[in-house]
Amino acid sequence: MSSRRQRSRQSGASRITDDQIADLVSKLQQLIPEIRSRRSQKASASKVLQETCKYIRNLHQEVDDLSHRLSGLLQSTDADSAQAAIIRSLLM
After folding, report:
1. What pTM, to 2 d.p., does this model score?
2. What distance in Å separates the CA atoms of residue 9 and residue 25, rounded to the nearest whole number?
3. Among 81, 74, 58, which Cα is nearest to 92's?
4. In contact, 87 and 73? CB cutoff 8 Å
5. Which residues form the BHLH domain (predicted)?
6. Measured between alpha carbons, how far is 79 from 85 in angstroms, rounded to an integer?
């Protein structure tokens, strides 16, 4: 017996149903812009998960880029200014 099946049987109370998985995939599908724009096509769960991971990676990259830009802006701003305080609050 596979270890996956053993874990599944051991944690029967925390088992997730196929309907619950389908519902969660559907919710993800609604959240991801790339998939949402192709609403007429039914994407597979695998495709939804791949696109979700890609989207999250892109969001992380955007956050890193914006943080870098804000840090550069902060360095070129008077440290005691109101603008510097706003930038510092955005970086926290």
Report:
1. 0.67
2. 23
3. 74
4. yes
5. 5-59
6. 8
Tokens 């955005």 belong to which residue? 90
Give a three-class secondary structure readout of the chain: CCHHHHHHHHCHHHCCCHHHHHHHHHHHHHHCHHHHCCCCCCCCHHHHHHHHHHHHHHHHHHHHHHHHHHHHHHHCCCCCCHHHHHHHHHHC
Q: What backbone torsions phi and psi does residue 43 show, to the nearest 5 degrees?
A: -85, 145
The encoded tokens of residue 88 equal 């510092």
| Structure confidence by residue, pLDDT tens digits, 4-46 | 555 555 555 688 899 999 999 999 999 998 888 776 677 899 9
Q: How many CA atoms lie within 13 A of 24 on its CB side?
A: 10
Residue whose entry in the numeric block shows the structure tokens 């609050």:
89
